[in-house]
Amino acid sequence: MSIDINKLTIRNHVIFGLVMRRKHLAQMCLERILGKKISNIEYIESEKVKEVSAETHGVRMDVYCENEKEVYNIEMQAYRVRNIPKRSRYYQDMMDMLLLEKNEKYDVLKKNIVIFICTFDLFGKGRHIYRFENRCIEETELLLGDETTKIILNTKGTMDDIPHPLKLFLDYIETGNAMDDYTRELENAVADVRSNEKWRDSIMTLEMLKEDVAYDSRLQGLEEGRAEGRAEGKAEGLEQGRAEGMAEGLAEGKAAGVSSEKKETALRMFRAGKPMEDIMLATNLTEEELRPMLEEEIISTEHIVIK
Predict the structure, then answer these.
(1) Beta strand pairing status for 70-77 and 129-132?
(2) Run of H or E including 42
(3) What backbone phi and psi angles, to 5 degrees, belong to 116?
(4) Of 2, 49, 6, nearest in space to 192 by CA
(5) What is the chain's percent helix, strand, coil content, to nearest 5?
(6) What is the pTM of this model?
């Protein structure tokens, strides 16, 4: 599979992660998404992530950073998947494990914010942004107060539901068109990453692996779609299917009867010692259709197999 690295954009999660290693770009990204000023951020060491996740499910975080009050994980999601809600739950658990040293009190846990930037509408409501916090079901105004937040962004949103700077950022991800100073700086950073020899091989390798995974996922999705389609079609077309099925069943039964009659004729002629050519002429069956049937007859009567 040939991949042109120069065509990869910020939608590529590897390039996104490398671009966001520029601290001021990540900080400005968070400010646009959260709608507030963010104090200086620091990246959490990858070795610490590996240490915590060594005996658990593998974890890779595109952008993982913190300040004195909050911890952030930003993920670029350019492929439609259904497991984002549970992935966000797992990421928040992992982030808390990284922050909470053994024997420390829970009070040390910071506000935990997981952000997914999706190039599709996960919930199909047309919003650019979906925010989730833990609330009481019976008293929806009552927050649990665990200070966890999940944010799902949608570059294909249609509502007028976000500030203009965030809209420009999402539009840049969706179209590749940089329309303000920040998105132009992002685009320059993307070009720098693509041209950096240090990263080119790693990006190409990961992109090819992603394509393989995406292909497998498309196959799985195709099978799931077929199964769902069959189920829906069966439910919606039951009455029509009954009428059509009766007609088809009569036709198939008639065809099966003719086929059975031909086979019986062929077997009678074969038992009478008639040559293959005569049997084919009389029944209008091909040699490929006759041979398995006659070989089965030979085996059952302990004759010699046809040459």
Answers:
(1) unpaired
(2) strand 42-43
(3) -110, 125
(4) 6
(5) 55, 10, 30
(6) 0.64
Helices 238-271 and 276-283, packing angle to 10 deg: 150
Q: For residue 28, what are its two tokens?
A: 């400005």
Q: Which helix (H) or strand (E) holds 72?
A: strand 70-77
Place of tokens 């490929």: 288
For residue 151, the cross-strand partners are 115, 131
Tokens describing residue 6:
């120069």
In whole angstroms, what is the distance from residue 169 CA to residue 101 CA? 36
Walk along the chain (307 residues) in steps of 10 and give the mean pLDDT of each run: 75 90 95 94 70 54 87 91 88 84 76 96 96 94 94 97 97 96 96 83 61 46 56 59 59 54 82 79 78 66 41
Of 220, 196, 186, the closest CA to residue 79 belongs to 220
For 56, residues 6+ apart whose C-beta sits below 8 A from its C-beta are: 94
**What residues contact residue 109 under an 8 Å CB cut-off, 6+ apart?**
96, 99, 100, 147
Please name which of 122, 149, 151, 112 lies closest in space to residue 33, comparing C-alpha atoms. Answer: 151
Question: Strand, coil or helix: what is 174?
Answer: helix
Judging by beta carbons within 10 Å of its beta carbon (0-12, 13-18, 19+), is residue 180 exposed, middle or buried? Answer: middle
AA letter at 307:
K
